[in-house]
Here is the input.
Amino acid sequence: MKIEKPFTPFPSVGYFGPEYFCDREKETETLVGNIKGGQSTTLVSIRRIGKTGLIKHLQHRIRKDFICIYVDILPTENSIDFLNALATAILNSVPEKTNIGAKIWKFIQTLRPVISYDSLSGSPNVSFNVQPKESERHIENLLAFLEQQEKPVVFAIDEFQQILEYPEKNMEAWLRTIVQQLKNIVFIFSGSQPHLMHEMFANPSKPFFRSTVFLQLEKIEASVYQKFILQKFTDAKKEISEKVALEILTWTNVHTYFVQLLCNRVFVNSEEKVTTEIWQNVAQKMLEEQQALFLGYRNILTGEQWKLLKAIAKEGQTYLLTSKNFVQKYTLGSPATVLRSLKSLQKKSFIYKQFDEKGNAYYSVYDVLFQRWIQNQY
Ligand SMILES: Nc1ncnc2c1ncn2[C@@H]1O[C@H](COP(=O)(O)OP(=O)(O)OP(=O)(O)O)[C@@H](O)[C@H]1O
Ligand SMILES: [Mg+2]
Here is the structure.
């Protein structure tokens, strides 16, 4: 796997190797331990915390000893898409020129797919012209092939909750049966909708119940991220104080994607020294750029949902959504209305539920920029 260099030391999309990756040491160790013990893992967190990054980081580290496959199934809608995504991921996981790579190519070609090439990246795309029933057999064949390889396989399926959307209702049960039989393949099932993932893997009446160990990914510790930020600016001969790095982390709620996004922009827009004024100007500019998008939220939400979203954004972390105080302060109608709006806002990924260190549940807005934008309004 050839890794290119990012434009700044703070990429906000993709994985560029350990040098640009902050921490996650404990989590990586846990995953390595699970894999060596033949245990599959369910990796969950709210969105944009760094699940995909962690999987890539892990696979980068163990790639010499394992065949590492990564597939994101978010774009798939049925078992045939799933088959195509799996086959494409398998084909792209190992270079064709290697021994195993050549074997994989040969095997996939025996299944007679159509292979096309991505016009931008040039990477191959596999698609099968089959009926849903046949797709299951093909998936079994692909996994059986991997099962026979000398090297063990780490197969990461990202956005796994997507299979719940397939019209084929037996998918979970069927997949569980196959997965259970594999000895040479360890899976990482990752998902960004914690409630759906918990339902699939922690509900005793569901096929995947207790088939994996859970790894809940939390935010990176602020002090660790702070050191990382200092290091990256210093390496590039830019001066930044601990205080300024902490201000950036506080403003972005230490939410990985937003930290990267802001640091990236600050990096580009600064000379030798990064000051509070510089990062605040950059942040302000980012909010202005997003204004149309934020106002657009109003059009896709009902009046009640929009009001609740704004209220939660203003609060930052909201604990008692249906308390008299909160409902009155933001004139939200009744607790029942709040609960109804809450449900759709959660479903549409506008807000998320988290627990603090004391185990108390709170709600926050996903989009840190939206939260800050609202907070700046009258
Ligand atoms: N440990 C890290 N250090 C530095 N950057 C990171 C780290 N983890 C993730 N990132 C960056 O943050 C961005 C968001 O992370 P990532 O896509 O992994 O989150 P995710 O939890 O998979 O999000 P989603 O739920 O939306 O799929 C990534 O594009 C990556 O650039
Ligand atoms: Mg992801």
